[in-house]
Amino acid sequence: MPLISFTDKGLYCEPGRFYIDPWQPVHKAVITHAHSDHARGGSQAYLCHRDTLPLLQLRLGPNNYQAVAWNEKILLNEVTVSLHPAGHIIGSSQIRVEYKGEVWVVSGDYKTEFDGISGQFEPIPCHTFISESTFGLPIYNWKPQEEIYRDIQNWIRNNEVANKTSVLIGYSLGKAQRLLKAVEEVTGNVYVHGAIWNVHETLLQAGWKLPAVQRITPETPKEAFKGSVVIAPPSADGSPWMRRFAPYSVGICSGWMQVRGNQRRRNADAGFALSDHSDWNGLLQTVKASGAQKVYITHGFQSVFSRYLNELGIDAKEVKTEFGMEDEETQFENDNNLKI
């Protein structure tokens, strides 16, 4: 019996009697991060990183939560569990599980480049590693964050000259917070969709220092948007809600924008390949750094990535899960029943 099994409810550690990011209600859920494909309601008890706690409370409401710091060891029925930075979004963690000398690591979603807000990813040595592969193709090779930020800033400046509102599309938990850091150097006139506002307020109350924003309401005058920056989730793109910003220019912020055809299909004016996931090289480097003898590949380009690992002599296998069902454009706001 492996230390962690792949079941119809999710990743299950039988000796510890807990699940990791289960997609059905269970008695004990250990959560990597607060995106809705990894953190679902209905379980009796949750264990997460302390920065994830307020986000789970926002999403799932009152519950039996236990929050820990990174590297803090917790004993669950003789199984030692610790959480380590994953670099994906605020509070995102890898789950290290140790029992009788055997170590498994469940990465959840991760990003190896430090973004200044999500925690610095650290590779964890283990015998078995469970990895995502959202962008597990060689074509996905990210520019440094600073360079992407400069591209966004220059685009905003050009829109200001053209008297257009700059509308940046990025999901409300993770991408929106990074975009605020990118735009604060060029403007303090930032408006946000209601879903982003609720996450923003939750983080402020938890002690995070984020740039000031204004919530968009039906009462916000159209004149206020001229020359401003608007940050909105994917669900708003192309909707009647956008009409109030005219004339405007739309920039989509997603790793999928690495492929130019995706920008055309989304009918966007600009695309910025700003991702909260590792690129091809980041995935490879992480797997190698783990030293794992066995690797399981979950959501994304599983077949390509696992086949390549096997060609390198690393024992890799595809595993079907319900992670990534909403892909990188996770519409986190829908799970909150938030109003515009």
From TrEMBL:
It comes from the Bacteria. The keyword Phosphoprotein does not apply. Its EC number is 3.1.-.-. GO terms for molecular function: exonuclease activity; ligase activity; RNA endonuclease activity. InterPro entries: MBL, RibonucZ/Hydroxyglut_hydro, Xnuc_lig_assoc. Keywords: Exonuclease, Hydrolase, Ligase, Nuclease. PANTHER family: BLL1145 PROTEIN, CLEAVAGE AND POLYADENYLATION SPECIFICITY FACTOR FAMILY MEMBER. This is Ligase-associated DNA damage response exonuclease. The lineage of its organism: Bacteria, Pseudomonadati, Bacteroidota, Chitinophagia, Chitinophagales.
